[in-house]
Amino acid sequence: MAKKAHAAPGRPGRAAAKTGRRARAIAAASTVAVALVAATGTAIGAVGQGGAAGSGAPERIGAAPHVPAGATTTGATASGTKLHLSVNLAPRDPQSLADFVTAVSTPGNAQYHHYLAKGQFASVFGPTRATIAGVSRALKAAGLSPGKVSPDGLSIPVTATAAQASHAFGTGFRNVRLKDGTTDYLNTSAPSLPANVASSVTGIVGLSSVNTVSGHHSAVRRASRHSSATAVSGRSSRTVTAHTYTPALCADFTGSGLTDGTDYYSPGKLAGAYGMSSSATAGAGQTVAVFELENVDAGSIAAYQSCVGTSTSVSNVYVDTTAGAGAPATDGSVGVESALDIEDLIGLVPGAAIIDYQGPDAASATDQNVLDVYQRMVTDDQAQVISTSWGECEAVESSATASAENTVFAEAAAQGQSVVAASGDDGSSDCYRATGSTAKAVDDPASQPYVTGVGGTTMTTSGSTTTQTAWGNADGGTGGGVSSRWAPVVYQGGVATTAKRAVPDVSALADPADGYPVYFQDDSQSATPVPGLVGGTSGAAPTWAAAVVQANAGAACQANGRVGFLNNALYKAARSSYPTSFWDVTSGDNSVYATGYTAAAGYDEVTGLGSPKEAGLTTALCAATGTAATGASTFHPLSSPKRLLDTRNGTGWGLSSIPTKKPLVAGGTAPVKIEGAGGIPSSGVTAVVLNLTVTGTTGAGSLIAWADGTGKPSTSNLNWTGASQTIAASATVKVAGDGVVDLYTSSTTHLIADVQGYYTSGTTGSKYTALAPARLLDTRSKVGISTTSKISNAVISLKVRGHGGVPTAATSVVLNLTATQTVGGGYLEAYPEGATRPTASNVNWSATGTTIPNLVVVPIGSDGNVSIYVHGTSHVIADVSGYFSTSGSAFDTVTPLRLLDTRQTTALGAGKTLAVQISGRDAIPSTGVKAVVLTVTVTGTTGSGYLSAWADGGSRPTASNLNWAQGKTIANQVIVPVGSDGKVDFYASSTTHVIADVAGYIG
Fold first, then answer.
1. Arithmetic mean of pLDDT, 885-892
2. DSSP SS3 for 853
3. Phi, psi (degrees; rounded to nearest 5) at 552
4. 919 and 978 in contact (C-beta within 8 Å)?
5. Is residue 672 within 8 Å of 743, Cβ to Cβ?
6. pLDDT at 699 > cutoff 60
7. What H or E segment, with its residue span, contains residue 339?
8. What pLDDT does 114 receive?
């Protein structure tokens, strides 16, 4: 079926209607408007997982694609229509792949920059041979002829007629006429496969030919001061003479009457603006690949090389096409995108090698072709940096295609390849050209989690001063906004506080009014390439690719390993040294078709983090490996808790110089710097004891804490059951080599983190001795106090040394504090007697009748006491479970692991005791364990009650570790002695489910 380019519809500008993109001329006389090629790509159904092993019943994979807005159906697709498909397979363990990418991208992790070798992906993360064979058998059984699996094992090619595909996948096909007159086909139902293989398939790409992929560049203008609307007539011939490397360019530009730094930016001027090197050898030893869906005119590339005085290696790899196929790059339109991408890179990194990966023409390319090109770029693994200036509206692209791309880009990250993508030129309304919608939308692949989205700016230099604003005007603007597909990403935590992945990540020059000098071929104007100027985020993406190439070529990356997946390092740099690494763009907007987003200080959905400051950025991107502290550890209490994070006022939240006061969004992650903060040493820390508080909750949720750069565990540290709650829990969290811990919440909430103390691998701290739990304070029954009245806004002096087994040599005590029978809202603060009362709380409540516990580690005052301040009104209970001193045992961290979850078996009955094996599980030794650090959670509570934990074989204590009211889900950290048989016991006074997650052990 014939296909054609999807023409860009007219633009309803901010002030006036517009059609196409503005064309500004530069010949000796006038302006030539060159139409932007709008390309096409395939869309199919969303991805579904599941299926019972061994079942042959068909199972749908995802959903059928939607008919595009403005399109009409025109009947059934001819049965003989040939389809080129790929059955895309899931990695054998998607979470392990994600964890590996995180590990190789995190300084201090043992795997940092230890990327997969070329060709290694299939054997490590690709589907198993059995999975591939099983899917292939199912396809053959359905009457198809599957081809050879891709080198990475992620896709099986299939060529079939529409009739064969209809029979094999249980779907019909229909033709649709798009709003521009193009006729395409799409499947009417989600494809199906037998259930025993469907769970291994992420999607089938190629069942639809509806496509809107396009290059993100402006119309090209000829290089001349004149800008009348009169078309240039006739043909001319011009010779460019080669000369030595001159980043300011040759006379075709310098003699054009236009000003470098105002009307355009030469490679030298652009490199200077961003602090990049400007030399004939910049990027030496590196390879960068560009993604293209059109021919490139070799003569234009040669003309540019002659003008700038370079001899950069430019080679071609053809994917799903051949050399010479497709439309020639001779009409002033085809080939402009490729010329911009390649020539920008030649000017900025002339010492690098460039590979042009070319697929079929955009006008006839399908999503399958697009995916094939990306997959070839990754499986070839020749380039350290990949740049793409092509994309399509995220809402139009099928979930199957997006999912397949996502896995390919994860593969690139695992191999240490950096991928940058233009964010689009349609402002906040990325779908406008595809569907006519002015609603907010973003571009794929710029929105992909493993891709760095690059937005655009307007830049002007006057003398020694260069200014930048967001690019956005009547002719186009930087793409940006919030993804409709991808969940919040860990690396954007605290920087982009949006409900889903925010785009772009960074930005660079894009405005065609002061854009990029190029040579291009237009046979209607000249027999030889002519100089022109062009803009769009298609220029910004290769500019950022060049910045990464220069970093990789520098001494620091040569010593510490290439950058690889860029986003983890970018956002870490922004948190630690934002003004040093980024040029913040603080004005302008991307309201091209409708009200969009506005640039502001710090991150925004217009220009992202901003533009590169190469020197500072290279230092951050090429950081030394670092080493995580490990082994037996001793404890260092803080004399007073220090607040490291408070999203309510921006403490520790946002960029290094620009805090934010927005809450942590549902599914978001807050990275918290531990080492070097709050009086904690800058190295050698193995774990930290935090008091974590959620407040202003918006619904039920949970919190997970873990070491940055490692996989998020399937455990929890804090739980809450509704909106408008304030609740706290203590957590002992392993600290990664980069000195950071991550905090994830499943629902939107403000979050506070106060550090009580930390562990180091040295022997200078104190050691732990576990005690049989004993009650030191209970205001309900005159234990440790002379009253039975509730305490209101007063301080309790609690005797600790010489009580409950705590010796006079103890320096800190571990207490389980419980507030019960509360009146209104309030909190408890525990601190050494005689010290100034801290501003950090330990136990919080927000309603009358609450019962809430929390474990605290408190230094003991010189008089042997600790003080407990009650803000509000409540009864207070304090149970001791151990102490720190110069004697005792050291602490070892483990990767958090769930040791018990009675929801998978049977609830713990009222008055019943459950023994749980501790020793020999996870990384816990089978012998010599004296105590274990657990987060214990009760849920599905059937009435009010309490839970006690103790060493198996001992007597059940009278003290409790958790207390709850009916229907509540409550979590608390406990440090419980381990019996000689390696077990601990849990007793519940009323029926409840019990969950126990381990954080470490004392031994």
1. 96
2. strand
3. -60, -35
4. yes
5. yes
6. yes
7. helix 336-348
8. 95
Sign of CA dihedral 141, 146, 150, 151: positive
CA nearest to 732, candidates 710, 756, 709: 756
Q: Which residue has the higher pLDDT, 749 or 68?
A: 749
pLDDT class for 2, splitting at 50, 70, 90?
very low
CB atoms closer than 10 angstroms to residue 237: 7
Residue-level pLDDT at 243: 53
Task: Select the more confidently predicted residue: 231 or 725.
Answer: 725
| Tally of CB atoms within 10 A around 674 | 27
**HSE of 951, CA atoms in CB hemisphere, 13 A:** 19
pLDDT level of residue 426 (50, 70, 90 thresholds): very high
Cα–Cα distance measured from residue 103 to residue 114, given in angstroms and rounded to the nearest whole number? 9
Beta-carbon contacts of residue 130 (< 8 Å; ≥ 6 apart): none
Helix (H) or strand (E) holding 329: none
**Look-up: residue for tokens 């869309």?**
43
Coil/strand/helix, residue 186: strand
| Strands ordered across the beta sheet of 214-215 | 214-215, 390-393, 443-444
Q: What share of the chain is helix, strand, coil (3-state, %, to 5)?
A: 15, 35, 50
Q: Could you tell me whether strands 465-470 and 314-318 are parallel, antiparallel, or unpaired per DSSP bridges?
A: unpaired
Nearest-angstrom CA–CA distance, 474 and 513: 12
Contact 925, 951 (CB under 8 A): no
User: What are 110's two structure tokens?
Assistant: 């043992």
More confident residue, 9 or 665: 665
ω into 504 cis (within 30 of 0): yes
Q: What is the pLDDT of residue 13?
A: 39
pLDDT-based confidence at 628, cuts 50/70/90? Answer: confident
CA neighbor of 908 nearest in space, from 852, 980, 986:
986
Helices (H) and strands (E) in the chain, counts: 16, 52
CA distance 910 to 992: 8
